[in-house]
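Entry 12.
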Amino acid sequence: MKRKLAIFVALVCSLLLTSSFAVAANQANEQERIQAQEQGQVYGSQMMTEQERNEYRTRMQSAKTNEEREQIRMEHHERMRDRAKSQGLSMPDSPPPKGGGMGGGMGGGMGGGKGKNK
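Predicted 3D structure (tokens):
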């Protein structure tokens, strides 16, 4: 009886240990996905200096929560929309969807080579 109990406890412990590794791996994958996304092209980058792009990436990477990142995204989009307007260009009213939007470039009528790196 003790042997069966010991085997059962060992199995439960190994399952818990395995599942904790899976959770940690998922968290690491999510963090890597966010970092890869942030290291891609910044939305509106054609109108930004290299320093501005780096500062934006740094802010996104240092954000602690998804809500904080979303706030940074929204503020950034508003600045890029204002900048585009001042240059006679157009941008969509809302930022691109999360996940694939940061690499989307100018989109929404911004093409044609009008946006320039400064």
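Annotation: Helices lie at 2-39, 50-62, 66-86. Residues 100-118 have pLDDT under 50 and may be disordered.
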